[in-house]
Amino acid sequence: MIFRAAMVITLSTLLLAFGVRASEKKASVVSPAMIIQQQIALNEILISIHRLQIDFLDQGAREALQQAQQSLNISIHTLPESLHDPEANNLLVTVVSLWPVISKHITWLSTIPASYEPPSATSLLRVLAKMDRQLLLLRQKIANTLPGNTGKPRFLEQALLMQYMTRDYLSLLVSEQNAEAAIASQMQLKTLANRFDQRMTAFNDELSDHPHAMEPVQQAHAAWSFIHSSFEKFPEQKTPDLIVRYGKRIVSNLSSLQRMF
């Protein structure tokens, strides 16, 4: 009986180990959607840093920074150790090597007592921008190797565009650009907002009768309708809190949509 029980335990252990290896192998598969999710988390970090630049006492920004850090840390560790394509592998190596340094600085920034003088985040923002660029190039490289009919993560792409707009909106509030550069950046932001509006309207028209996707797409469309004018009226009218709040809601709705398709 003892021997039989031991056999059962051993078999269970082997099956469990096999299951873990299988899940690890599955997690090692890199897809464009997986990379976009990492970009969304990374841009949530950028958004939170800009919020702290605006108000270093913003406890919500500190908590959002820590949550995005945890999310990206988990996601980074699901990446494979290497890729067959040399160019893609170099991008992967750069992303993985940048993250520990970035994560260490985020921990430092998010735990500085609010009573202290706000530190400069310029260097951290530059490294984060570099990592975002590397993730974008890696995603494009991976997408180019997929079969032609592979579905695009279009709802996640729209969610990432919302993150970019929120990031750029907050960045303009704290930037020290000259007048000409600031005007160019504002025009670029409004161009992105118009592109986002066109896609959001198309999604809403396409899925208005879908039994499951109808609710999240309409919620995202309604939230966007509420803040669209904020981009059009910027910089005369500044509503960063609304942009952050409703932007996050839109990202959540669009991420839910992506999981349905």
Looking at this protein, list some descriptive labels.
disordered N terminus, 261 residues, mainly alpha
Biggest sheet, open or closed, and with what strands and sense?
Answer: none
SS strand fraction: under 5%
Count of alpha and pi helical runs: 9
Task: Summarize the amount of helix as a percent range.
Answer: over 70%
Radius of gyration: 21 Å
Poorly predicted sequence stretches spanning 5 or more consecutive residues: 1-27
How do the SSEs run, as a string of H and E?
HHHHHHHHH
Could you tell me the number of beta strands?
0
Q: What is the overall shape? A: globular
| Derived structural class | mainly alpha
Describe the fold and architecture.
The chain has nine helices and no strands. By secondary structure, it is mostly helical. The longest helix has 29 residues, at 179-207. The model is unreliable at 1-27 (pLDDT under 50).
Question: What topology emerges from the helices and strands here?
Answer:
Blueprint: H1 2-27, H2 32-54, H3 59-76, H4 86-111, H5 122-144, H6 154-174, H7 179-207, H8 214-232, H9 240-259
Helix pairs in contact: 2-3, 2-5, 2-6, 3-4, 4-5, 6-7, 6-9, 7-8, 8-9
Short description:
The protein has 261 residues and is mainly α. The protein has helices at residues 2-27, 32-54, 59-76, 86-111, 122-144, 154-174, 179-207, 214-232, 240-259.
